[in-house]
Design goal:
Layout (H helix, E strand, L loop, with lengths): L2 H28 L2 H27 L14 H7 L3 E2 L3 H6 L6 H6 L8 H7 L8 E2 L1 H6 L5 E3 L4 E3 L1 H11 L18
Parallel strand pairs: 1-2
Antiparallel strand pairs: 3-4
């Protein structure tokens, strides 16, 4: 991104932050700050949590594409490294079509209001991983990429692998016929 564009975006971010400060400051003039906080904070926390979950689901799912530098492919990363989260139409609208993340990864200049049409009109997008809302909830258990298995796994898979790889010995137990000596 050229320097002039970075400066423009930076100015827009600062302008948005100043507008929010002015809005919240004005509310605090008319209402006690505790009341403003009690009204604004839950909504902000809920929206932030949903946003984080939506981003997570788009990149952490069964069969996700992960490759090292030499084997990495832009096309495969866009089409298999992000999912199509099929949301009900009303949620699709309120999330700005974020469920069509695979289209965004392939062609980031398509505006959010054209993502659905781009997906529907281009067969290349029809084979990308598709998740439903329930599938998205199930992805929360996936935390680590297991290179040997070539898939995402949860922490329990790592624990299970460690248990099967090491013999079980009770803590503090001595092997038969051994003698403990202190020096």
């Amino acid at each position: 991104m050229p320097g002039w564009a970075r400066r423009r975006f930076w100015r827009q971010i600062i302008a948005t932050d100043l507008a929010l400060i002015a809005l919240i400051g004005t509310l605090c003039v008319f209402f006690p700050w505790q009341s403003v906080l009690l009204v604004q904070l839950p909504g902000a926390l809920l929206a932030g949590s949903v946003g984080i979950w939506l981003f997570y689901v788009q990149h952490q799912f069964e069969g996700v594409y992960w490759k090292r530098n030499d084997d990495w492919s832009y096309r495969d990363s866009a089409l298999r490294g992000s999912s199509y989260l099929k949301l009900p139409k009303v949620l699709q609208f309120f999330t700005g079509n974020i469920g069509l993340h695979h289209v965004h990864h392939m062609l980031p200049r398509i505006p959010n209001y054209n993502l659905q049409r781009a997906h529907d009109d281009n067969p290349v997008f029809h084979s990308c991983p598709t998740l439903g809302f329930r599938d998205g909830i199930g992805t929360l258990r996936l935390k680590l990429y297991d290179e040997e298995q070539g898939r995402l796994v949860g922490f329990s898979a790592v624990r299970d692998r460690r248990r099967s790889a090491t013999p079980r010995v009770r803590r503090g137990a001595l092997a038969p016929h051994s003698h403990a000596t202190l020096t």
